[in-house]
Each structure stands twice: as structure tokens, then as C-alpha cells.
Amino acid sequence: MSADPLLAEQIAYYRAIANEYQDHYIEAPGAQRQIDAFNKFDIRGDVLELTCGQGQWTEQLVGRASSVTVVEASPEMITLAKGRVGEASVRFIQADLFSWQSDQRYDTVFFGYWLSHVPEERFQTFWQLVADAVRPDGWVFFVDDNYRTEAELIEGPGSSVVERRLNDGTKFRAIKVPYDASGLERRLQELLWDVTVEESGPFYWGTARPQN
After folding, report:
1. 35 inside domain
2. pLDDT digits (tens, 9 = 90+) for 60-83
């Protein structure tokens, strides 16, 4: 468990929500363009997925990659993902990403709906982790959204802390950083990434590779 109380609470939230995760999907315009971009991206070789949720993206990665490794903090989510993709086709690692280091490099690094949960103060450290995990000629692909309801903004719209509720009303705090495409591109370019980010409605997606 993370030493940071807010990050620990975020992990606890995703452990608790695992079996009702599908009840909280976002229905908003723009999702199909994001899916189309994922389907068109040339995923190949050895793939690292950072956080897998219920395995909906993992399932698609398996069919396009030589191998897939997944890092996920929630054992409940891993169990659901294994049920979707099988245990033999994916190497699952249960770990907190903020304390994990890759033991190899990959052709593709993918993360879906994770970047917005990285605290601002850990943004650079996270992208260094990604840079250390991707091969020099490899690529990073990510998808996410900026969706935050007014009711979630318990500390106001200027804060990245939101309050999420389970179906039974149990409350958890989590990180939800909203990004616009151009601003995110600039931040990553400052960290020496070649990057393109696109957006449609609350959804965005990007391709990136470290500058050599």
C-alpha cells in the first residue's frame, strides 16, 4: 500500500469498485474516436500495460502483441482481468506503480485511464518510469478522459482531488487531473518527449516516444 494517504485511498477505491466498475462507465460524445485511434495504433512486440482495470484493453492487446505484461495495484482487478484474458497469455504483476520499476524494456507501453490519476507532483517521475520501460525505438500510447462532475469536486474545480462513490454510497477520494491536449503536449515536450495528443469531448489519447 502507498505511503501517501491519498494514493492509498485511491488504490482502496479501485479495489472496492472492481465488481461494479462497469456501472460507472462514462457515456459522453467522443469515446468512439478514442477507440478508433487505439485500434489504428500499431501495437506490436512486447507490450507493457500500466494498470489494467477489468482487462478490457488487455484483451485487445493480447491479440496484437508478442507478449503482454500488466502492472496493477488492485488484486481484485487482476482477478477480473485474468478471467477475461486467461492467465497463460499475460504476465500479471501486482504492484503500486509509484514504487515499481521495470525489469526490462518494451516495444510498446500502454496505459488506459491512468494518467489523470497521477498526482501533479509525480508527473515527471511517472514519465521517467515510462521512459525507462520503453525501448529506444518503441512507442507509448495512452487514452484517458477529463470527465469530472460538479458533485465530485469536493475541494473546488481548481483541485485535482475528487470524491467517488460506490453503489452503496461509500465515499473515496481519488486524483483526477484534467488535461487539455495542447497543454499536455507542452509538458511532455519539456520532458523531452516527441508527442501528439488529440481530444474529442472529454476523451483524449496520445502517442509519444522519448527524444533520442
Report:
1. yes
2. 999 899 999 999 999 999 999 999
For residue range 159-212, list pLDDT tens digits in order: 999 999 999 999 999 999 999 999 999 999 999 999 999 999 999 999 999 997
pLDDT tens track for 85-99: 988 889 999 999 999
For the domain that residue 204 is a member of, what is the CATH number?
Answer: 3.40.50.150
How many domains would you assign to the chain?
Answer: 1
Q: How crowded is the C-beta side of 98, counted as CA atoms within 13 Å?
A: 19
**DSSP E strand stretches across 8-82:** 46-50, 67-72
User: How far is the C-alpha of 165 from the C-alpha of 147, rounded, in Å?
Assistant: 15
Q: What are the strands, taking DSSP E only, across 146-192? A: 161-165, 171-175
Residues 10 and 172: their CA atoms lie apart, in Å, by: 7
Q: Which are the contacts of 186, defined by CB distance < 8 A and separation ≥ 6?
A: none
Non-local CB neighbours of 95 within 8 Å, separated by 6+ positions: 71, 72, 73
Q: Is 29 within the bounds of a domain?
A: yes
62: left (phi over 0), alpha (psi -120 to 50) or beta: alpha
d(CA 6, CA 138) in angstroms, rounded, equals 33
107 inside domain: yes
